[in-house]
Amino acid sequence: MSEPVTTADIMLIQKILPHRYPFLLVDRVVDINGTTSATGIKNVTMNEPHFQGHFPGNPIMPGVTIVEAMAQTAAVMVGATMGLTDNNLLVYFMAIDGCKFRRKVVPGDVLKMNVETTRGKPGAKVWKFKGVATVDGEMAAEAEFTAMMDLPA
To answer: Annotated catalytic residue: which of 19, 28, 50, 54?
Structure first.
């Protein structure tokens, strides 16, 4: 029996998620605790295309990309735990609830996305998660989100 997956580097992430630059928004996932919880890490850099227009001269990571980064972290957690590599896993938002933004995320920040499963188990198509994104221990955003996991035939 193989050891449980507790981390996912960028190579494993790309085997789970279909996203690629510029929309792959998680660099590493650590502290994977089965399908219960995990922490994603995103190194925010000025090279990202959204900073050209959001906002010129005052680069701020768009809130929607922070929520997407939390969702990608959750998908990697589930995919890594369930061995869903090279399976063309697609994950679709069904709902985003209670979303709040508390601080700006700017180039040079290390964004940490802590996600936990509130509903879902292996074999389920619909999952619900709670996510909190922080920078230096300070909350940047939080949301609950529901997603449908789809494995194409």
So the answer is: 54
Give the separation between CA 32 and CA 145, rounded to whole angstroms.
19
**How far apart are alpha carbons 85 and 96 in whole angstroms?**
26
The fraction of the chain above a pLDDT of 70, given in percent, is: 98
In this prediction, residues 8-19 reach a mean pLDDT of 97
Angle made by CA atoms 122, 111, 71, in degrees to the nearest 5: 30
Q: For residue 23, what is the DSSP state? A: S
Query: For the structural domain made of 10-150, what CATH number should be given?
Result: 3.10.129.10
Sheet of 126-135: strand order equals 28-33, 37-43, 110-119, 126-135, 138-150, 90-101
| Strand ranges (E), the chain | 28-33, 37-43, 90-101, 110-119, 126-135, 138-150
Is residue 54 annotated as a catalytic residue, yes or no? yes
Instruction: Give the predicted TM-score (pTM) of the model.
Output: 0.97
Question: Are 25 and 17 a contacting pair, CB within 8 Å?
Answer: no
For residue range 68-119, list pLDDT tens digits in order: 999 999 999 999 999 999 988 899 999 999 999 999 999 999 999 999 999 9
